[in-house]
Amino acid sequence: MIQAQGVAFAYAGGQVLRFHDVAVEQGGTVLLRGPSGSGKSTWLALAAGLLTPTAGVLQVADQDVAMLSRSARDAWRARTVGFLPQKLHLSEALTVADNLALAFFAAGLPVDNTAIAQGLAALGVGDLATRKPVHLSGGQAQRVALARALLLRPRVVLADEPTASLDDDACATALQRLQRSAQACGATLVVATHDARVLQALPQAQVLAFDATAREVTV
Ligand code: ADP
Ligand code: MG
After folding, report:
1. Which of 35, 63, 91, 97 has the CA that lies 20 to 30 A from 104?
2. How far apart are CA 150 and CA 80, in angstroms?
3. What is the predicted pLDDT for the residue at 211?
4. Residues lining ligand 1, CB < 6 A?
5. Would you call 186 helix, strand, or coil by DSSP?
6. Which fold would CATH assign to domain 2-218?
């Protein structure tokens, strides 16, 4: 479950971004919709505990992340949040399987190679385990990144512009895959997007609008 009340954030020297309130039940889907620069990626960083709200309360998976110490927050994030960033952040130096192993290291858990193989297979990329990311197509790389995000069965999956470079068919398929995968582990899914096609592909999603009213200039 995710609950945001009165959340605002200001980058150093920047404007205050004020966000609409939202409540999403566990396992639900929410779309963060709005134009470029309206604060969607910032909201995801707040939800992941990478940034701390300057005002308001943001609870993610029943945790007010701002209440955690820095190290507790890192541990919480590694175990609770599956993050599919816009730039996938796969390490080029590592194989696909070793990129997934990083999720276990980050959480301080022993590497479970069976889970890695199963996670890749579930997304149809089981045969790519020994490849380096440079030898993957864009779509394959996104599936690998999704497998990594889901590996520890997170309570929340945060996806930033997951359809940015996809054509219409690939867009619908990727969103269905994303929602099915999140549902399979009972995770709440948050998709940040300025892509109108996403709303059509996920008609039952709750929409959190990001627009000019979400932004105000500091005085
Ligand atoms: P979106 O994801 O909707 O495009 P962002 O959350 O990236 O929006 O950005 C919201 C606002 O915050 C923009 O005005 C952007 O320029 C600003 N911003 C984003 N990241 C930073 C940063 N690291 N430092 C300062 N300002 C930032
Ligand atoms: Mg963004």
Report:
1. 63
2. 10
3. 81
4. 11, 14, 17, 34, 36-42, 210
5. coil
6. Rossmann fold (3.40.50)
